Amino acid sequence: MCPAALPPMASQQAFNWLAGVTMTCVFFGLRQHWKEKCSGITGGRQSSKKDEQMRFLIGQFSHESNSFCTPTTGEDDFKRWELTRGDEIIQAHLGKHTVLGGMIDVLAKSGHVLIGSVSAMAAPSGPIDVAFYQRIKADLLDAIRKAGELDGILLSLHGAMSVEEIAGIYDPEGDLVAGIRTAVGPSVPVAAIFDLHSDMSDLLLDNANLTLAYNEEPHRDAYERGQEAAELIQRIRRGEIQPVTARERVPMLLPAINMATDQGPMYSLHQMRAELEKIPDVIDISLHPGFYGADQPDVGFSVVCTTDRDPALARDLARKIARAAWEIREQFLVDLTPIPEAVAQALANPEPVGLIDEADDPAGGAPSDSVEVLRGMLSGGVRYGGVSTIKDTQVARQMAQLGEGRRLSTLLGAKTDALHGKPVEVEGRIVKIHRGPIPLDTWSGRVFELGIIGVLDVNGILVVVTEQKVVAENYDIFEILGFDVSKMQVAAFKGLGLHIRQALTGKINSFIPVDGVGVTHPDVRKLGPYRHLRRPIWPLDAAPVSPVSP
Question: Could you tell me the end-to-end alpha-carbon distance of the chain, in angstroms, rounded to an integer?
Answer without folding.
Answer: 32
